[in-house]
Design brief:
272 residues, 7 strands, Chitosanase, Lysozyme-like_dom_sf, single chain, disordered N terminus, Glyco_hydro_46, Chitosanase, subunit A, domain 1, Chitosanase, Chain A, domain 2
Length: 272
């Protein structure tokens, strides 16, 4: 019996696709494979991806996806770092707040925060408010109304945390989710702290740049991140990893594509 019409000459019904050879009169005829075009991965420094990154960090740092509403935020959260403020939690006790106010003062000499520079230098490395109270929080909120101060916050965020983290992610050949994992770790632990976490993860896995599996590597990195977080009572809630980044990873969403549904500190969020 002859093959059904349409199959006898290697033809397929409309919409069908195969990579298997089709026989015609006993002669194998390879049908052309239908291959979907490759879609280039988009890095975290793409503007749309960066916006997503800022929203996820803001959910963890400020319990809100509206990261642009956080320029004026300031409080002492009791984590031993003094005042925490701004869009990524610049701290008076860790040096990044000092560098921010210095950069702002270079751009706008005599601004409302410039008079606090001597005090910020003295309290760096401590949780002290000496020389800052009682009016520093009020003046910080006032400065947040200045576009130059908002620009300074974004510039310092990128210079100190975002740009080097994304650069390292690209070097390790991880995609947007991995680049975000590095960035979020740098925001909490400092860039050098993130590098230390990465160094410990290298004892358990290898990044794609060294021939490793991307998912396996990111699980190893997040495992070490959680260990680091649990060293401090203020950061012992690891939900920003467990019910956010780890969820994306388990779903195979290495490109951090929307929609994203996640939870941080018990609050649920969705980014479309």
């Amino acid at each position: 019996m002859l093959p059904a019409a349409g199959l006898a000459y290697g033809l397929l019904p409309a919409g069908a696709a195969t990579t298997e050879p089709v026989t015609a009169g006993g002669i194998a005829a390879a049908a052309p494979a239908v291959i979907a075009p490759a879609v280039a991965a988009v890095n975290l420094d793409d503007p749309a991806k960066k916006e997503i990154a800022m929203q996820i960090v803001s959910a963890a740092e400020n319990s809100s996806l509206d990261w642009r509403a956080q320029f004026s935020y300031i409080e002492d959260i009791g984590d031993g770092r003094g005042y925490t403020a701004g869009i990524i939690g610049f701290c008076s006790g860790t040096g990044d707040m000092l560098e921010l106010v210095e950069a702002y003062t270079d751009a706008v000499p005599g601004n409302v925060l410039a008079k606090y520079l001597p005090a910020l230098r003295r309290v760096n490395g401590t949780d002290s408010h000496a020389g800052l109270d009682p009016h520093y929080p009020r003046d910080w909120r006032s400065a947040a109304g200045d576009p130059a101060f908002r620009d300074a916050q974004e510039s310092e965020r990128d210079r100190v945390y975002f740009d080097p983290s994304v650069r390292d992610g690209k070097s390790d050949k991880v995609r947007a989710l991995g680049q975000f994992a590095y960035y979020d770790a740098a925001v909490m632990h400092g860039y050098e702290g993130m590098r230390a976490i990465r160094g410990r993860a290298l004892h358990k896995a290898r990044p794609p740049s060294q021939g490793g599996n991307e998912t396996t590597w990111l699980h190893a990195f997040l495992d070490e991140r959680v260990i680091e977080m649990r060293k401090e009572e203020a950061h012992s809630d690891t939900s920003r990893v467990d019910t956010a980044q780890r969820v994306f990873l388990r779903n195979g969403n290495l490109d951090l594509n929307t929609p994203l549904e996640f939870a941080v500190y018990g609050d649920h969020y969705r980014i479309d």
